[in-house]
Write a structure and sequence with these properties.
wza like fold, four-stranded antiparallel sheet, Outer membrane lipoprotein wza fold like, 4 domains
């Protein structure tokens, strides 16, 4: 174990030396570009103060790069931090703005329900030394894996982080989140750290109303109402109904009509199977319509499936009845065998009594008495076996009688489940068919082909006070979790809230 530990320490030290060497090489090759960036910064306290304020230099970094009297290499490394670190650039940029929690201003702001990916990086304490060869570990950076992870923003706009308590982040940019969490880390643990933040998942935008494809759509950067309408297939506000739109809606209605007829045919088949009938209960006019739309082959296939199902159920019932008859016959046969065996045993007992009396008088030899006793024992053994077989057969008969109604009930339950699924699907399709019909009716009832009917656009947004309505335009910015209502609003606020919750899976 000591040898393995020594090897591990040696390898860790070797990796640290290689990493330090690569960093020095990077500094040497990129020095000229970096120094040119800070050539105009001056020198002395003014230069160092401006640099620390711009880059948010942490105390361990100030010691690492030699402070205001640092050499050219230290200045080049600091310049590289400004050039190469997206996190540091974002923090420096955020320091000039307002990072106070509030209502989100854009899609880049944090909203309730977002899942943030936070990563924490820290350096060892000043003066920390390695266990091998006295290596300085203060230049290394390690990640706090116990704190790094995914955190969900609750309804109050806060994230709960172990050791740091609750941090308000609603309405802030990712740069502000990084700065806020880093400051809370310093206050709680007394140690500076670097924090990176990113969006893990976000709620989709729900579009409903007068659109071709209502549903949930993933939130895009700088997403507006115009983008959502394009995704959902709605006409731009103020545009007249186009012939292509009517053609698409008519095609969709024809497809839904076909699905309705198909489901109706399947429902009638299942109902006929449950009733034990071999004919589908559909009037001739409706059957002609089904044949015209679905085709003769489809209707014939459903009729064949109906007859096959009815025949299979009849065969199953016949097999069950035959099995019951066989078990009943076997029970009767075993009962007869048991009665015959009992009569034989009685006769043997009488014969044995007579032989015992003759043997006592010396008129019957002893071997005949023993033979009769052995014969009686065999009969009693046979009677025991017959009784055992009879009990087994009676148990099987009782079980078969109990299973017969249970199997019939299971069969009916299966058919009822299929029927329920078909009816549910039919209701959903009929609802879609009604929505398509309403859209076609609304488009065809306009005064003229060129008449312009503006769309009513309303955004329902969740705020700290609850759901609020926003009269929207095409350029209104949408936030994750928003509900965009297009056209007449026909649903209640509670239904919209439920729809928003159900749509969190995204699309």
């Amino acid at each position: 174990m000591r040898i393995l530990f020594a090897i591990a320490v040696f390898l860790a030290a070797l990796v640290s030396i290689l990493a330090w060497k690569v960093s020095d090489d990077r500094v040497a090759t990129g020095g000229s570009l970096a120094e040119s960036r800070f050539a105009e910064a001056g020198s002395g306290e003014t230069w160092w103060s401006e640099l620390k304020q711009t880059l948010k230099i942490l105390p361990f970094e100030e010691r690492r790069f030699g402070g205001q009297d640092g050499d050219g290499a230290g200045r080049r490394v600091l310049a590289e931090i400004a050039d190469l670190s997206p996190t540091r650039r974002s923090v420096a940029k955020a320091s000039g703005g307002d990072c106070a929690p509030g209502e989100p201003a854009s899609a880049a702001s944090v909203v309730a329900g977002d899942k943030l990916r936070l990563r924490f990086f820290e350096q060892p304490a000043d003066g920390a030394k390695g266990t091998d060869r006295g290596l300085d570990l203060s230049a290394l950076v390690f990640e706090r894996l116990d704190l790094s992870g995914t955190y969900e923003v609750d309804d109050a706009g806060e994230v709960s982080i172990p050791l740091l308590a609750r941090v308000p982040v609603r309405g802030q940019s990712l740069a502000c989140v990084e700065r806020q969490v880093a400051n809370r880390y310093r206050e709680a643990l007394g140690t500076p750290a670097s924090v990176t933040a990113g969006f893990e998942t976000r709620h989709p935008v729900l579009v409903s109303g007068a659109v071709r494809s209502p549903g949930a759509y993933a939130t895009l950067p700088d997403m507006t109402v115009r983008h959502a309408l394009a995704l959902a297939g709605a006409e731009a506000a103020g545009a007249a109904a186009s012939a292509q739109t009517l053609t698409n809606l008519a095609a969709r209605r024809a497809e839904l009509d076909r699905l309705v007829l198909s489901l109706e045919l399947e429902i009638r088949r299942i109902e006929a199977v449950m009733a034990g009938k071999t004919e589908i209960g559909i009037d001739r006019e409706r059957l002609r319509t089904m044949i015209s739309v679905l085709g003769q082959r489809r209707v014939d296939s459903e009729l064949a499936a109906l007859r096959a199902a009815v025949d299979a159920r009849g065969l199953a019932r016949a097999n069950a009845s035959s099995h019951l008859e066989e078990l009943s016959s076997r029970v009767e046969l075993l009962k007869n065998q048991q009665a015959v065996t009992q009569d034989q045993i009685k006769q043997k007992r009488r014969r044995l009594d007579e032989l015992q009396a003759l043997n006592a008088q010396g008129l019957a030899p002893l071997y005949r008495l023993h033979a009769e006793e052995l014969s009686q024992m065999n009969l009693e053994r046979a009677q025991f076996q017959v009784s055992l077989d009879l009990a087994t057969a009676e148990d099987a008969l009782d079980a078969a009688r109990r299973d017969l109604p249970a199997q019939a009930s299971a069969d009916r339950s299966t058919l009822a489940g299929e029927l329920r699924d078909r009816v549910t699907e039919l209701n959903a399709i009929e609802g879609q068919l009604g929505a398509v019909a309403m859209q076609i009716d609304a488009l065809t009832k306009r005064p003229t082909a060129d008449a312009e009917v503006p769309l009513e656009l309303v955004v329902v947004r969740k705020s700290a006070e609850g759901l609020i309505d926003i009269d929207a335009s095409l350029d209104t910015t949408l936030l994750p979790g928003d509900i965009l209502e297009v056209g007449a609003r026909a649903r209640t606020r509670d239904q919209l809230a439920d729809a928003s919750i159900d749509s969190r899976g995204g699309r």
